[in-house]
What we know:
CATH architecture: 3-Layer(aba) Sandwich
Largest sheet: 6 strands, mixed
Oligomer: single chain
Amino acid sequence: MYSSFALMAVAGALLNNVSLSTAWVNDYRVGRELGQQQQKPLVVFVGQGGFDWKQITQEGQPDGQVQKLLAERYVRVYMDSRTEYGRKVADAIGVSGGRGLVISDRQGGMMAFRHTGELSAQDLARRLERYADPNLAVQTTETVNPPAPAAGSVPYYYPSFGGACRT
């Protein structure tokens, strides 16, 4: 019993730790909690294997300004689509092909942007700047390179980014 309580206390302390705001999170649920606590949008990068900028941007690692923007104004989540959990999250948020990204609104209740595949570093910077704006009221999801629906299936519809994956 003591060890369970100690683990819960450590987990709570980690979630309240400000230094975590600059770290990458590999658990969607933890990322959502941090986003709600810090009132920051969530950016979920989906890749295959370990994190590599070349899976997200055509040019590779973006400039320091983009990295600063990500660290200061977003909760950053990386999901490995080669794991069962990563695949479940990627499927739930509509990122197919094992690579892409999703940005939520500041409350974590709406998906603001979804992209499958890679973006140019310039396009990534523009999208991140736009969706980090605290005055932006997200009404719909902007989708670029949507996944092709399987024959006979219903097109993707995500009324709430927050409810995308609960496992």
